[in-house]
C-alpha cells in the first residue's frame, strides 16, 4: 500500500509536538497543544498565500485585523486561505448556503481523536493509511477528512445523505488529488446512520460526527441570533446573518435535535460494533450529556468517555464509546501496526 503524502511544510516552525497524553478538561480559549491555530492569525502571511483574502480583512472594534464573520463570502475565503497555508489544500469551495466550518475547532476534534487512539497504543499516535476513519455526515466542506488526512495520514470514508453536498465534497477531493485517501459514499436511507452504509469486510479505528444540533429551523435561527447578539452590540451598523456559518437543514437540525440523533447513532452502533473500534460524536449542549451517557451505558458499551475541548469563548465536548475491551483494543491496533510495517 502506498505511503500517505508528506505534510506540507508549516510557514511558522514550531517546537516538536508533545507526546500524546490524556488531556485534562480544557480551559476556556485553550486549543489542543498540537492545533496549528494557536494565537492570532498572521494576516500578511495569509494574504501573501491567498491574495483574494485582502478585500475581506477589516479592523475589529478592538483595533485588531480580522474578517467580518457576518459576511459568508469572507468566511469562505478565510477558510480557503487557512486550508491552503496550514494544510496544503490548494482547492476548496462549497455551494452557497452550506455549512462553512470554523477550522480551529474542527482541528481540535481531530487531535483529540488521535489522543484517544494513542491511549490504546502505548501513547504513540497511530498514523498512516492503515488507520481508517468514518466521518458521519461529511457535508459539502469535507473538513474532517481533509484535516485528518493532512495531520495524521489517515484514510477516510465520508458518508452523506445530501446529494449536492456529496458532489461538492467529491469536487474538493478530486481537485486536491486525494481520491486514494478519501472515499465518499451516499447513505441511501436518510433515517439511518450506519445501517446499510458499511461493507461487511470494512474496519474503522474511529467514527466521528458533527450531528445536527437543533430540533427545528426556528431553534437553529434563535441559536445563531444569540451568538451574534454581542457582536451586534459592538457594531450596530453590521447586518448579521440568520445562521452562524450557514448550513442546510440536514446539517443543522433534525426531529428531536442532537439527543434523538445521537441516540439513533448509539442504537445503530451496536449493529456494526465489530467493525468500529471507537464511535464518537460531538455534543453541542452540555445539558444533554447525562441523557446521552445513560443511553450509552444501557447500550452495553464496554467503555464510555467524555472529552472536553475549548475554542475561544466556546466550550465543547465529544462522547466516545466502544464495545471492545482494553485488551481487544490494544490487540486491534497492534494488528493494524503490523500490517502497515
Describe the structure.
With 341 residues, this protein is α/β, with parallel strands linked by helices. Helices cover 36% and strands 16% of the residues. The protein has helices at 43-49, 72-87, 103-118, 143-152, 163-175, 217-234, 249-252, 257-269, 289-298, 326-340; strands at 57-59, 65-67, 132-136, 155-160, 182-186, 204-209, 276-283, 303-311, 314-322. The chain has a seven-stranded mixed beta sheet, with helices on both faces. The longest helix is centred in the middle third of the chain and has 18 residues, at 217-234. It is globular and about 55 Å long. Mean pLDDT is 84; it is low at 1-26, 219-226 and 247-253.
What order do the helices and strands come in, and which of them pair?
Layout: H1 43-49, E1 57-59, E2 65-67, H2 72-87, H3 103-118, E3 132-136, H4 143-152, E4 155-160, H5 163-175, E5 182-186, E6 204-209, H6 217-234, H7 249-252, H8 257-269, E7 276-283, H9 289-298, E8 303-311, E9 314-322, H10 326-340
Parallel strand pairs: 3-4, 3-6, 4-5, 6-7
Antiparallel strand pairs: 1-2, 7-9, 8-9
- Determine the mean pLDDT: 84
Strand arrangement within the widest β-sheet reads: 5-4-3-6-7-9-8
What's the helix-strand series? HEEHHEHEHEEHHHEHEEH
**Helicity range of the residues?**
25-40%
The description of the largest β-sheet is:
7 strands, mixed
Portion of residues in beta strands equals 15-25%
Number of strands: 9
Number of helices: 10
Describe the global form.
globular
Radius of gyration: 20 Å
Q: What is the terminal-to-terminal distance? A: 10 Å
The chain-level structural class is alpha/beta
Oligomer: single chain
Low-confidence stretches: 1-26, 219-226, 247-253
Amino acid at each position: 500500500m502506498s505511503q500517505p503524502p508528506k505534510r506540507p511544510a508549516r510557514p511558522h516552525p514550531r517546537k516538536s509536538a508533545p507526546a500524546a497524553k490524556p488531556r485534562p478538561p480544557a480551559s476556556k480559549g485553550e486549543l489542543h497543544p498540537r492545533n496549528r491555530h494557536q494565537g492570532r492569525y498572521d494576516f500578511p502571511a495569509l494574504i501573501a498565500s491567498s491574495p483574494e483574502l485582502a478585500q475581506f480583512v477589516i479592523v475589529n472594534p478592538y483595533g485588531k485585523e480580522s474578517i467580518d464573520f457576518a459576511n459568508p463570502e469572507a468566511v469562505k475565503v478565510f477558510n480557503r486561505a487557512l486550508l491552503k497555508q496550514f494544510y496544503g489544500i490548494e482547492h476548496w469551495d462549497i455551494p452557497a448556503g452550506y455549512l462553512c466550518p470554523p477550522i480551529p475547532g474542527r482541528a481540535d476534534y481531530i487531535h483529540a481523536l488521535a489522543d484517544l487512539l494513542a491511549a490504546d497504543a502505548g501513547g504513540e499516535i497511530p498514523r498512516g493509511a492503515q488507520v481508517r476513519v468514518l466521518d458521519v455526515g461529511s457535508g459539502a466542506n469535507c473538513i474532517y477528512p481533509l484535516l485528518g488526512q493532512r495531520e495524521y495520514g489517515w484514510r477516510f470514508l465520508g458518508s452523506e445523505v445530501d446529494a449536492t453536498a456529496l458532489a461538492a465534497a467529491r469536487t474538493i477531493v478530486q481537485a486536491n488529488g486525494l481520491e486514494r485517501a478519501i472515499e465518499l459514499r451516499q447513505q441511501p436511507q436518510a433515517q439511518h446512520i450506519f445501517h446499510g452504509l458499511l461493507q461487511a469486510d470494512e474496519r474503522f479505528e474511529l467514527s466521528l460526527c458533527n450531528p445536527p444540533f437543533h430540533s427545528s429551523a426556528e431553534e437553529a435561527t434563535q441559536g445563531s441570533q444569540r451568538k451574534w447578539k454581542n457582536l451586534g452590540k459592538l457594531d450596530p451598523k453590521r447586518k448579521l446573518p440568520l445562521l452562524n456559518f450557514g448550513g442546510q437543514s440536514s446539517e443543522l437540525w433534525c426531529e428531536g435535535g442532537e439527543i434523538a440523533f445521537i441516540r439513533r447513532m448509539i442504537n445503530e452502533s451496536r449493529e456494526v460494533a465489530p467493525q468500529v473500534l471507537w464511535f464518537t460524536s460531538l455534543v453541542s449542549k452540555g445539558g444533554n450529556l447525562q441523557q446521552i451517557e445513560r443511553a450509552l451505558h444501557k447500550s452495553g458499551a464496554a467503555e464510555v468517555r467524555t472529552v472536553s475541548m475549548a475554542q475561544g469563548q466556546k466550550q465543547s465536548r465529544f462522547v466516545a464509546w466502544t464495545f471492545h475491551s482494553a485488551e481487544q483494543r490494544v490487540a486491534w491496533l497492534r494488528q493494524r501496526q503490523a500490517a502497515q510495517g
